Q: What sequence folds into this?
């Protein structure tokens, strides 16, 4: 199979690695990719917003399957565009990508199909939104309706904070969703879907705040691990029954079947799992840890999702733990300095069980330099989380990059509960 992966982050590098290892792979292209992808695949500077250019490339290169990494091209309808010329695509069509593309759509959908989620109301008018907030009191959650690259949600602790969030988010994105605060433990839950069938595809925990101990601003994710101890087989079964299955059934009933990877952001609280939000793509850095644990060949699974033949398929994950540490440029998630030299990536990859995935990097005069906010993801497998963590941090410590920083506490909370650990 000739495969084209769209995207340029560590998630796409991890997807490329899994595809490169497939026994079914023919040509492997990543667009636009990054220097890490370029070591295992051909990278081509396609513009992800230019669907004509991408489809012309697919025709010319006889691409059999396109794997879409990020949400923006999905929400913009890249899958519909490619389907029209007969190119199979892993990911939902535009109408199904609305689960991520519009929070209001997602919430109304949950209400119609009785999917457990936070109570909410939608607003087009900010003074009505403020009146509602005044009525409900703080804490309360304010969300912009559309895609906002992780900046569209404010969990407001006071009324003033909520009013400020309403002003900020409504000016940027139009409609708002205001909802109750959910309490519990957050988990990123994945299910592979083909429009009708859905199968669990493991789960992970992300670390969204920039600083150790979950302080500072939200980021795209500073680290992740899998499996999270809170996810038992019973809970997986319950999430599939109460959240994933009705989502897939509801979308099919509405005539917009969901194909691709459904990423349910969950809050596991006293009443059980509730949906915080849908994403319609792999998480980053969640993909790096989940794919590290996947024991099956990835490509046939993605192909089955794209072509509607997942029924009876059960992806297998190793019992081992995987842990990922994101190295980001100083200043992230604010303004960062680009172009600082990174050394020691090869030495880091020599640590047992470790893979280094590139995100915001570029090659310059034979060196790797930083070129974005999140720059590298260091991923390690181990028999348990403590071993995965020890390996991942040993690898990070071999990377010589004064321009970068990372969190020291990935998975600390879960490891403290792991049997037999002394840390
Ligand atoms: P994002 O991934 O940028 O949409 O950010 C959403 C984050 O905001 C989630 O990961 C949660 O940590 C938090 N969040 C969103 N909705 C709620 C809610 N109803 N209750 C508690 N936290 C929430
Ligand atoms: N790490 C969270 C996300 O990919 O949305």
A:
């Amino acid at each position: 199979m000739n495969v084209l992966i769209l995207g340029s982050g560590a998630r796409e590098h991890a997807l490329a690695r899994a595809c490169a290892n497939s026994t079914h792979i023919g040509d492997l292209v990543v667009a636009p990719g990054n220097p890490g992808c370029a070591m295992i695949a051909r990278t081509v500077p396609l513009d992800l917003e230019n669907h004509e250019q991408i489809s012309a490339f697919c025709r010319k290169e006889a691409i059999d399957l396109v794997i879409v990494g990020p949400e923006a091209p999905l929400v913009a309808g890249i899958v519909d565009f490619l389907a029209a010329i007969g190119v199979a695509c892993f990911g939902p069509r535009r109408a199904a990508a609305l689960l991520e593309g519009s929070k209001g759509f997602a919430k109304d959908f949950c209400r119609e199909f009785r999917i457990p989620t936070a109570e909410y109301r939608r607003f087009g008018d900010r003074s009505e939104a403020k009146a509602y907030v005044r009525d409900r009191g703080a804490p309360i959650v304010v969300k912009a309706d559309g895609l906002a690259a992780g900046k569209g949600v404010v969990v407001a602790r006071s009324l003033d904070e909520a009013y400020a969030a309403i002003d900020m988010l409504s000016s940027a994105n139009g409609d708002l969703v205001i909802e109750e605060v959910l309490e519990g433990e957050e988990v990123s839950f994945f299910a592979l879907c083909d429009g009708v069938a859905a199968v669990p595809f493991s789960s992970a925990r992300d670390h969204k705040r920039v600083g150790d101990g979950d302080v500072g601003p939200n980021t795209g994710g500073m680290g992740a691990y899998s499996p999270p101890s809170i996810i038992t087989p019973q809970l997986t079964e319950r999430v599939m029954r109460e959240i994933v299955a009705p989502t897939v059934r509801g979308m099919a009933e509405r005539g917009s079947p969901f194909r691709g990877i459904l990423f349910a952001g969950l809050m596991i609280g006293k009443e059980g799992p509730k949906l915080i939000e849908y994403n319609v793509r792999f998480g980053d850095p969640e993909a790096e840890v989940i794919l590290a644990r996947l024991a099956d060949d990835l490509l046939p699974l993605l192909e089955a999702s794209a072509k509607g033949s997942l029924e009876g398929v059960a992806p297998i994950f190793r019992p081992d733990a995987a842990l990922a540490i994101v190295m980001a440029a100083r200043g992230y998630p604010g303004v960062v300095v680009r172009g600082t030299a990174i050394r020691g990536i090869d030495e880091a990859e020599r640590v047992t069980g470790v893979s280094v995935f590139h995100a915001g990097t570029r090659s310059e005069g034979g060196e790797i330099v930083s070129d974005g906010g999140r720059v590298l993801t260091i991923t390690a497998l181990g028999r348990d989380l403590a071993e995965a963590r020890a390996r991942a941090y040993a690898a990070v410590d071999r990377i010589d990059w004064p321009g970068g920083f990372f969190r020291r506490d990935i998975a600390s909370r879960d490891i403290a509960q792991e049997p037999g650990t002394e840390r």
About this structure: The mean pLDDT is 95.
